[in-house]
Amino acid sequence: MEKIFVVKRVAEKLWAAENGIDATLEQAAELMTGIVEARKDLQISHIVVDPAIGKVAEAMSALAAARHAMIEAHHALNETKLRIGVRTKLDGGHPSLVEDHRVPDIISDRAVG
Fold first, then answer.
1. How far apart are CA 111 and CA 60, in angstroms?
2. What angle do CA 84, 102, 9 make, to 5 degrees?
3. What are the backbone dihedrals phi and psi of residue 81, each rounded to the nearest 5 degrees, phi first?
4. So where are the chain's domains?
5. Cα dist. 66→5, 69, 104 in Å?
6. Which pLDDT score, from 0 to 100, does residue 1 have?
7. Residue 108 gets which letter from DSSP?
8. Is residue 18 within 8 Å of residue 101, measured between CB atoms?
9. pLDDT given for residue 87 in this prediction
C-alpha cells in the first residue's frame, strides 16, 4: 500500500480523536454552565452543588491535558511522516494536513495581485 494512503488513514483517525476531545470538552463546559444555572434557578446554596462543580472542573482539567497530549502526538506524527519520506502537502480539507500547521501560510490577496 502506498505510504501516502496509510498516512492519510492515520491522519483521519487523529483528527477524529482531536475532534472527539474538543466535543467532550465543550459538553463538559455546557454541563458546568447547566449546573450553575440550575443552582440559581432552584435558589439553592453554593454548598449543595460544590462537589459536582469540583468534579466537573477536575474532568475538564483532565480533558485539557488529553487535548494537549493529542496535539503533541499530532506533531510527533508529522515528524514521523517526514522521516518516512512523505513530504507532499495533503490539503484535503483539514488544516493540519499541511507540513507544519503551527504557523499558517497566509498569503494576502494584495500580495498575489
1. 42
2. 40
3. -55, -45
4. 3-87
5. 27, 5, 24
6. 74
7. -
8. no
9. 81
Residue 49's Cβ-count burial label (10 Å; 0-12, 13-18, 19+) is middle
Cell numbers 517526514 label which residue? 82
User: Within its chain, how far is the Cα of 64 from the centroid?
Assistant: 9
Q: Give residue-wise pLDDT tens across range 7-19.
A: 999 999 999 999 9
In the numeric block, the cell 487535548 is attached to 67
* Contact in structure between 86 and 7 (CB atoms under 8 Å): yes
The alpha carbon of 89 is separated from its chain's Cα centroid by a whole number of angstroms, namely 21
pLDDT in tens, 55-77: 999 999 999 999 999 999 999 99
- CB count within 10 Å of CB 36 equals 13
